Amino acid sequence: MAFFLAALGLLLAIEGLTLAAFPGAAKRAAAALMDAPDGTLRAMGLIAAIAGVAIVWFVRR
Fold first, then answer.
1. b (16+ CB within 10 A) / e for 20-37
2. How many CA atoms lie within 13 A of 54 on its CB side?
3. Which of 57, 52, 44 shows the shortest CA–CA distance to 11?
4. What ranges make up the beta strands (E) of 1-61?
5. Residues with Cβ < 8 Å from 60, sequence gap 6 or more?
6. Among positive and negative, which fits the CA dihedral 2, 58, 53, 11?
7. I need a surface site. Which of 1, 13, 19, 27 has the fewest CB within 10 A?
C-alpha cells in the first residue's frame, strides 16, 4: 500500500508541476481531448493503463 501511495504522490506532483509550468499547453491539450473521438480516448487510456501496470511490474520484480 505504501508503494501505491508513493506512486500516486509522484503522479500528482508531476501533474501539478506540468499544470503550473505550462498552463496554456494544458488548456490546449484539454481542448484537444474534448474534440477527440471516444474510441481514440479509450485506446489512449487503455495503452496508458497497460504501460503503467507494466512499469510497476518491472520495478517491483
1. eeeeeeeeeeeeeeeeee
2. 6
3. 52
4. none
5. 3
6. positive
7. 1
What confidence tens digit (pLDDT) does each residue in 3-50 have?
A: 888 889 999 999 999 999 999 999 999 999 999 999 999 999 999 999
- Can you state the percent helix, strand and coil of the chain, rounding each to 5? 90, 0, 10
How far apart (Å, rounded) are the C-alpha atoms in residues 58 and 23?
Answer: 32
Task: State phi, psi for 50 to the nearest 5 degrees.
Answer: -65, -45
Cα–Cα dist 32/36, whole Å: 6
